[in-house]
Amino acid sequence: MLRSTERILTSHAGSLPRSPELLEANEARRSGTSSPGAHGRLLQDAVVDVVRRQREAGVDVVNDGEYGHAMASPVDYGAWWHYIFDRISGLTPGEVGLWEQEPRRSAPGRVVLTSFGDRRDRQRFAEAYTDPDSGITTGKQKPFPTITGKLEYVGQEAVAADIRNLKAALDATGAQEGYLAALSPGSCARLQNEHYADEDEVLTACAEALREEYRAITDAGLIVQIDDPSIAENWDQINPEPTVEDYLAFTRKRVEALNYALAGIPAEQVRFHLCWGSWHGPHTTDLEFRHLVDLMLEIDAGAYSFEGANVRHEHEWRVWEDRALPEGKLIVPGIVSHATNVVEHPELVADRIERFARAVGRENVIASTDCGLGGRIHPQIAWAKLETLARGAELATRRLWG
């Protein structure tokens, strides 16, 4: 895993904008109207192009833009999660929409996830969330499947294609390091369950299925990024609000399931991504990072990616002032945000980088984005944000290396 030994390196959190041609090809493949091999050839070329654009923007640690995780439309907040539905058996297509699921209530010592529509932030700002002109949108949401049989990984061909495409793009562009994103057991376990006896069995089954994807990626010499909003985002999906102690006990099971899935994989080939959900809402019910950071550091990863730029969480860089980063670990903080169309000034980018670098050591920081940019902001703005990230990293490098 690359480190910022001579200058501040840059990366991003995963999803990048898809071209209209790729979106059309995704839809044609979904509907069965594409010609044999056409989607695969287009996807391979698109991955080379998106890696080249990352390098031209100044990104050091690149990925495939998550292009192997098909987006349904230009605005799509769920591709990071939905992709796994085609790679795991034991699922039955759902009929109930994401927002129409029945609410569930928690009690002290008994934490359960409620429906997405019953999230506490959505209840508090119900008028804004239901106003089509408010700017809060998450695009098309298809019904989620239900677990009705044994979960087994069947995505071998799909992940092999992701690996081939990214490695070909690395060779074509000369990029040194690449990663592929994969779902966490904790996020996988949020599906409705009608097969397993309890939550613990679901978590174990998800971990055993997903470890195949993790191992395929790392065995190929790439880095796997574990996408796990569930660690932080679940807090808002528990109604009424639990105690922090109950929530951490609930979340620790998800951390243990992830570590179980990662067993035997070198930590230096794993980066973990934590966020509070990437929709453009108020986020007033987000749990403070100080409650989560120690549990996050128990995850067997070499690098930890987290939101550090949006206005709800930027102040939380201070958690690193009184906390020692474990030996050999990296942080990959968000320095530019997906949550605003304003493109950050390079001087601000440099200031944010410096805060983290002075807290944990400049060699232990890779500057990144809060969350994926693809499907959340306009492509032109997304690429401008990556360019300003690189310019700010250059400024920070001059300041830190003097």
Beta-strand percentage range:
5-15%
Helix content: 25-40%
- CATH structural fold name: TIM Barrel
What structural category do the secondary elements indicate? Answer: alpha/beta
Cα-atom Rg, whole angstroms?
20 Å
Instruction: Give the spatial strand order of the biggest sheet.
Output: 1-11-10-9-8-7-5-2
The name of the CATH architecture is Alpha-Beta Barrel
Number of strands: 11
Biggest sheet architecture: 8 strands, parallel
What is the top-level CATH class? Alpha Beta
Distance between the termini: 25 Å
Overall geometric form: globular
Taking all residues together, what is the mean pLDDT? 95
Domain count: the total is: 1
Outline the low-pLDDT stretches: none
Encode the helix/strand succession as letters: EHHEHEHHEHEHEHEHHEHEEHEH
Number of helical regions: 13
Characteristics:
about 400 residues; alpha/beta; TIM Barrel; eight-stranded parallel sheet; 13 helices; about 15% strand
Blueprint of the fold:
Elements: E1 9-10, H1 20-31, H2 38-57, E2 61-63, H3 79-82, E3 88-92, H4 120-124, H5 126-129, E4 146-153, H6 156-173, E5 177-183, H7 185-188, E6 192-193, H8 199-219, E7 223-227, H9 230-233, H10 244-262, E8 270-274, H11 293-296, E9 303-306, E10 330-336, H12 346-360, E11 366-369, H13 379-401
Parallel strand pairs: 1-11, 2-5, 4-6, 5-7, 7-8, 8-9, 9-10, 10-11
Antiparallel strand pairs: 3-4
Helix pairs in contact: 1-2, 2-6, 2-13, 6-8, 8-10, 12-13
